Amino acid sequence: MRTREAMDVLAAARGDAIVVCALGMAANEWWAATGSEDAFYMHGAMGFAASFALGVALALPAEPVWVLNADGSLCMNLGCLITEAGQDARNLHHFVVDNGVYQTVGAMPMVHAGQADYVALARAAGFRSAQRFDDVVTLATGLAGVLAAPGPSLTVLHVEAEPTHLGTPPMTYEGPEMKYRFGRALERRLGITVFGPSGY
Fold first, then answer.
1. Can you give the residue range of the structural domain that contains 162?
2. Which of 118, 156, 117, 130 is nearest to 1 (CA)?
3. 32 contacts 52 by C-beta, under 8 angstroms
4. What is the CATH number of the domain that holds 66?
5. Residue 154 forms beta bridges with which residues?
6. pLDDT tens digits along 118-168
């Protein structure tokens, strides 16, 4: 399946989930599919979307939290799997877009493409559930079961490497604006205080 197809399925099932996207392809495709201004799009911190999402999940245990990761970003911080499993955040669902390449830097192949088994890694780390989907039909039919079960879960979305790796433009804002749009969205929706009187 293609990344956009997978994102469309996820978007249709999102509901009230708080979404954190890894920088690059995962973030760009989620933005293209949803235009969601209440998601957090990681910038300049490859590998740490999962850690950020885990913090949100632990701080807001009553809210569903998703992290939309990519295989390259996951491999930059594989230790996040052990931490996620150890913290046992039942509201956290971790999705990994696996295309076997570093898409946003010219589709350079990953050194272990086709060899690493992220599902097995997650299970060995202690995840409550881990699974892989290879086509859009099985993803569409199986996603509800994944989301209904308690996390932490890891779901690998096996997608094609896209030849037009820079064809999907990123969201139109970043940095401080990203922080405030995301934080203000949480304040409005949940009735909580994210930013103090000084704005941070």
1. 3-189
2. 156
3. no
4. 3.40.50.970
5. 94, 130
6. 999 999 999 999 999 999 999 999 999 999 999 999 999 999 887 665 667
Q: CB count, 10 Å around CB of 79?
A: 12
How far apart, in whole angstroms, are the C-alpha atoms of residue 37 and residue 31? 8
Considering the domain boundaries, does residue 197 fall inside one?
no
Burial of 62 from C-beta contacts in 10 A (0-12 / 13-18 / 19+): exposed
d(CA 54, CA 50): 6
Bridge partners (DSSP) listed for residue 155: 95, 131
- Count the neighbouring beta carbons within 10 Å of the beta carbon of residue 81: 23
Total number of domains constituting the chain: 1
Q: How far is Cα 56 from Cα 181, in angstroms, rounded to an integer?
A: 15
How far is the C-alpha of 89 from the C-alpha of 67, rounded, in Å?
Answer: 13
Q: Does 14 map to a domain?
A: yes
Is residue 163 domain-resident? yes
Tell me if 11 sits within 8 A of 53, measured CB to CB.
no
53-62: pLDDT as tens digits: 999 999 999 9
Segment holding 82, helix H or strand E? helix 79-87
Say whether the peptide bond before residue 170 is cis (omega within 30 degrees of 0): no
Whether the model pTM is above 0.85: yes
